[in-house]
Amino acid sequence: MGILDKAKDFAGKAKHVARDVAGKAGDTAAKGVDVAASGADKVTGGKFHDKIERVSDKIEHVFDRDGHDHGNGTNTDGGSPS
Questions:
Q1: Which of 3, 17, 53, 66 is 20 to 30 A from 42 (CA-CA)?
Q2: N- to C-terminal Cα distance for the chain?
Q3: Which residues, 6+ apart, have CB-to-CB distance to 40 below 8 Å?
C-alpha cells in the first residue's frame, strides 16, 4: 500500500469519526437551546412565549437531531438536502 492509499484510508476514517462527534455535539447543543428557551420563557413570565418558541425551533433545526441538515443547505456527507 502506497503513501497515497494510506492517506486516503486515514482521511476516510477521520471523516466518519468527525461525523459521529458532530452528531453528538449537535444533540447536546439542541438540549442547551431547550434549557435556554425554557429559562427565557420563565423569566419573561410567558409574555414572549411564541417568539421564544419560534426562535428555539429555528435554532434546533440548525442542529437537526438526526444529523441530516445543518442549516447550510448541505447534508453531513456534503451533498444536497433531499
A1: 66
A2: 37
A3: 48, 52
Q: Residue 53, SS3?
A: helix
Residue 23's closest CA among 75, 80, 72, 59? 75
Which residues contact residue 9 at a Cβ distance below 8 angstroms, ignoring those fewer than 6 apart? 1
Nearest of 82, 46, 42 to residue 64 by alpha carbon:
82
Would you say 68 and 77 are in contact if contact means Cβ atoms under 8 Å apart?
Answer: no
Alpha helices in the chain (DSSP H): 3-43, 49-63
Confidence of residue 37 (pLDDT cuts 50, 70, 90): very high
